[in-house]
Amino acid sequence: MSVFTRVFLHAPRSGVASVKKGFNLRLIIAFAALTLVLTGIVIVTWEQVLRPYYYGWVERKYPGPENVENRWKLEQRGEHFFISMTVDLIVVSILLAMVDRNQRRLMEANEQLAHSEKVATLGRVAAQVAHEVRNPLAGLLLYSEHLKGKLDGKLPNGDAQLIDKIIDTINNLTATTEQILNYARPVTLAPRRVDLNTVAQDVIQLLSTDITAHRIEMDLKLNSSPVIGMLDEPSIRAATLNLVLNAVQAMSTGGRLTIATGSDGNKLWMKIEDTGSGMSAEQVKQLFEPFNTTKSRGLGLGMPYAQKVIHQHGGRITVDSKPGKGTQVAIELPARIATQDRSHQ
Ligand SMILES: Nc1ncnc2c1ncn2[C@@H]1O[C@H](COP(=O)(O)OP(=O)(O)OP(=O)(O)O)[C@@H](O)[C@H]1O
Ligand SMILES: [Mg+2]
After folding, report:
1. Does position 19 have pLDDT exceeding 60, yes or no?
2. What's the mean pLDDT in 330-336?
3. 307: CA distance to ligand 2 center in Å?
4. What is the mean pLDDT of residues 34-54?
5. Does the predicted model carry a pTM greater than 0.90?
6. Which-ligand-closest: CA of 297?
7. Cβ atoms within 10 A of the Cβ of 46, count?
8. What is the mean pLDDT of residues 182-200?
9. Per residue in 51-101, pLDDT tens?
10. What is d(CA 63, CA 69) in angstroms, rounded to the nearest whole number?
11. Which atom of ligand 1 is closest in space to residue 301's alpha carbon?
């Protein structure tokens, strides 16, 4: 990456690069300033150094009144040469800017492609591992429960608790493998009438214990009439659950959770806002990457899963967050999924 690119383009420091479309205002200003400075240098050099020297040379070469016309022609040529040099300079600097910009965009696109391939491979490997351990885990659970039944009442209390711990661990591992597989497998959309108000209320109901435990104040701003669309209910519910759960987990020491719904023409929307820990711009940039988590027991699949579901519905998800202030997640869904099959995207 050239120094120029690093200074004048918003070159990302790390993480996924975003390809910028159109001209960059800072770049235009920088080039205009650079061209002005260079043109100024050329003019001053011509006026102060080259022109007196050149005119002197013409005067010596064609002296006397009989050479007035020759001298005038040569002086004109000198001026034309100077003007064309200035124009060339401007054109070359514009061309250089364009080449540099295109090179930068190509590099960003390559970086993004390599990154996406890495993430996709990681997802495939994780799904493969999850798939491989799922059946043995089911077997282990069966054996442990069988053993527990057989030894019920025959073991000292401490040993019986050990078997319960084994069963709990197996259940946790099974839940983790299910989450990974759930993320990896394609979502097949089966649209039916869904009310986003009901989805929001059910999710809050499901998380009521966590909401109370975190001392979270609820602010429900649901649309006065049902927000109905033809959507795939299970995946929309799961996506909403992930988003609300993240908001709850971000407010470990209390806060306010606002959920608003509404419709706008043929679009439905839901906003989930918390006053929790918030995220830096860098964190928001990596938010939808699988396995990106800051939680000790998190998998980093909640946000990518929600995004996948919403995109498959043909909708949008946007995140606005400020560290220490909170986060707002807005989802927008079409009231009716487009007829094309999105299940394999
Ligand atoms: N509302 C939020 N406020 C602050 N940070 C958030 C919020 N939502 C997501 N994050 C950050 O984004 C990360 C990724 O979220 P994501 O839901 O994908 O995974 P996770 O919650 O860590 O694990 P899980 O797979 O169990 O959902 C989180 O670890 C957290 O750091
Ligand atoms: Mg989560």
Report:
1. no
2. 94
3. 12
4. 82
5. no
6. 1
7. 19
8. 91
9. 888 888 888 888 878 878 877 887 788 788 878 887 887 788 778 778 878
10. 11
11. 25
Single-letter code of the amino acid located at 318 = T
Please name the residue whose Cα sits nearest to atom 13 of ligand 1.
Answer: 293
Quick: pLDDT tens for 111-152.
Answer: 888 888 888 888 888 888 888 898 999 999 999 999 999 988
199 CA to centre of ligand 2 in angstroms: 18
User: For the range 197-201, what are the long-range contacts, defined as Cβ-Cβ under 8 Å and sequence gap of 24 or more?
Assistant: 197/222, 197/223, 197/226, 197/227, 197/261, 198/226, 199/233, 199/236, 199/237, 199/240, 199/270, 200/240, 200/244, 200/259, 200/261, 200/270
Q: Which residue has the higher pLDDT, 280 or 265?
A: 280
301-323: average pLDDT: 95
Contacts 24+ apart (CB under 8 A), 52-60: 54/78
Ligand 1 center–CA 34 separation, angstroms: 45
Nearest CA to ligand 1 atom 19: 300
Q: Which residue matches tokens 């759960």?
A: 245
Phi, psi dihedrals of residue 331, rounded to the nearest 5°: -115, 145
Cα of 170 to ligand 2 centre, how many Å?
21
Give Cα 149 to chain centroid, integer Å.
50
> In 274-293, which positions are buried (b, 16+ CB within 10 angstroms) versus exposed (e)?
bbbbbbeeebbbebbbbebe
Hey, which of 177, 295, 299, 310 would you mutate to test ligand 1's pocket, going by the most ligand atoms within 8 Å of its Cβ?
295
**Type of residue numbered 181:** L
Mutate to test the pocket of ligand 1, among 203, 293, 318, 319 (most ligand atoms within 8 A of CB): 293
Those residues whose beta carbon sits under 5 angstroms from the ion ligand 2 are 246, 302
